[in-house]
Specification:
Layout: H1 2-8, E1 11-13, H2 17-35, H3 50-69, E2 70-72, H4 82-102, H5 108-128, H6 135-154
Antiparallel strand pairs: 1-2
Amino acid sequence: MKKLGLVLNKYKLGFDVFGLLLFFIIMIPNCIWFAIPAPDDVLRADSVTVPFDTVASICQVIMIILLCVFINKERKKLSNTPCIITVIICCILYFISWILYYNGITSAIIILGLTISPCLAFLFFAIDRKNNVALIPIFIFTICHLIYAIVNYII
């Protein structure tokens, strides 16, 4: 318990607008997908991994809250670090995967691009912002999101 207190002493409650911005950027294609179905829209099939989907959704909410509200006092000003460049690359790969998906390509690589890219973007953002508290829900979200993609669309 004492160790947890020492870890949490590095954090303050605040608001990281960049964490929220990253979430909104990642959600743009999802919002488009909800409104406008893709031609060969395999993602609209009923999921067979409902328990994992539920855990993923809960972890996603917790992850976003932690990325936006828990601020590490030791973090540096946001800049072009290798982690932030990786976040940008992951977002670009994510958008490319959506473009290919909307062009009717539903291969395993595209499904994995839709699954792994946003998870890695959140992971590298948390690492850059020294937000270790958010890493646990990010890892759980990533595992559940991968199980969802692999079981429902790849195998």
